[in-house]
User: Fold this.
Amino acid sequence: MRNAVVTDAAAAIAGLRDGHTVMVGGFGGAGMPPAIVRAVADLGVRNLTLVSNNAGASGDDLSLWFRQGLVRKIICSYPRNAKDFGAQYRAGAVELELVPQGTLVERIRAGGAGIGGFLSPVGVGTLFAAGKQSISVGGRDYLLELPLRADFAFVKGREADTLGNVTYNKAARNHCAVMATAADTVAVEVDRIVEPGALDPESIVTPCIFVDRVFVGVTA
Amino acid sequence: MNPLGRKALARLVGSQLPRDSFVNLGIGAPTQIADFVPPAAGVILHSENGLLNMGPAPLPGHEDWDLISASKSPVTLAPGGAFFDSSLAFAMMRGGHIDVAVLGAFQVSQRGDLANWSTGLDDGEPPGIGGAIDLAVGARSIWVMMDHVARDGAARVVAECTLPLTATRVVKRIFTSLAVIEVTAEGLEVSALLDGIGLDQLQACTGAPLRTAARVGSIAADGGLHWP
Assistant:
């Protein structure tokens, strides 16, 4: 029988290399997988392209990656109030691709769903239209937005079963459930792992077909 | 007459939200409107991070950091609330399912162009766009809540925005610390004025031509709106 369980965060990120593209779930701290974020910092891989809604605050979060200079480029919607990212950004040490949040998550969804791009009205007539193809449909202007995929997606779930089915906790679902569809290797940090059949099938948000690795994070 | 403070302005906006409407309150000043929406209004609050029917802040000691608002502050879920992922949260915006979004702004033009994102050019911080741009394009009605003039006295209701735009021709109604202004096809129309302010005074600190609506309400110092 399929078994997605790995021992710890180090095993969950095995195979991560310099230059990889990595999605990290979360809206602020909710949905960010803390043990995985620390494990990547410990591994010290460099030149990462990071896809994330935020860029850490000032604590034990993605700030670690910026403090250590692991990230070459971030694709992000709201990297403000992020002390360590801000310092790297001002020093010109990290490239920023600023993306409207709804466009960011839809690009990830497209990447996970095999969609070659989509037309969004968001950004028409603004700086966010720069470099994008404009297409008019039914008299309304849209921008062609391209899909995003990653080598790894790292997200936080609430419970998983050993097959890799995942539930989420409250508003910590946010970008996690979408990122979990859009990477070659998907690792989910959870609070508890149960046997197949123990999760209510109606409560499973990310079916195991998307999930490669699950492990229990050590809760602080 | 002193301009309306943030609380009074939040009370004014909160009193005008349509009954039983789906509403998104932007981060910053609009967040405070939630405290002034009468429960009987039946307004259902949406949050971009995957909440519908968002409730007030929890009591001290009951914070759950997996249950936060778009401002990343702890909140609660009201009875009948729901959780969903960010893709669905933004489908609700772009798909026209949100009745009203109230956003802060730096500038609004006479055609309803909106400039409200932090470019970082003024504060040396990285820029941030977040989800306000998706709301601005997608919600059925965009209301802006802001001080009538900038700290240096410059007009914020203008003929043309000089700051980078968030969206073009989207703002329907502007609630400022001095007036309520409707954005119409014929230009800006004042539908309510703060008590003690005349149209001439308002025009003097506004960067685009104003005319008055057929009926003009008066705004009390506490944000209460009264019709003649």
